[in-house]
What we know:
The protein has helices at residues 11-25, 66-72, 83-90, 153-156, and strands spanning 3-8, 34-39, 45-49, 52-58, 61-64, 78-81, 95-96, 100-103, 112-117, 123-129, 142-149. With 159 residues, the protein is α+β, with helices and mostly antiparallel strands. The chain folds into 2 domains: 3-68, Pre-PUA domain, domain 1 (Nuclear Transport Factor 2, Chain: A, Roll); 72-155, PUA domain (Archaeosine Trna-guanine Transglycosylase, Chain: A, domain 4). A hairpin with a 5-residue loop joins strand 2 (34-39) and strand 3 (45-49). It is globular, with a radius of gyration of 15 Å. The model has no long low-confidence stretch (mean pLDDT 94).
Amino acid sequence: MDVKSRHHLRSDVVSALESSVADGLGVDLAGDAYERVEFEDSDWEVVLVDGAPEIAYFDEEPFLTVRGANAYEPAHRIVTVDAGAVSFVSDGADVMRPGITEADPEIEPDDLVLIAEESHGKVLAVGRARVSGDEMVGSEGKVVDSLHHVGDDLYSFSG
């Protein structure tokens, strides 16, 4: 991905970003340098935290990237999938009920969520919930739309 623009964020924008991530995910970013990056050939907008692509904007909402989630261990908005779902989720598939072992009960429809695998807790993808967390475990139906996953262009961007 070719970088279109790159600029440091003002302190008020950084404060709002840190508050949003802390409130939504229980994560304290505490970086020293924040840069917003826009790309030539993509709609992705990324925030580099101390040079690492740890935040992205999804429909203008800041949220951890897969790399950011694995660096910070978020406490909220986590959907856990079983081993059978890992390869599909890692390839960008939407998440289906049968693959889910548990979900944060505080998740509401349209929330951004992190999809993690159950054996090591590693985050594989970022998605948007179609249903509440209480309704995610079950036998059929798509419940999370995938937005960003391990191996996509955003994941491959190194800053």
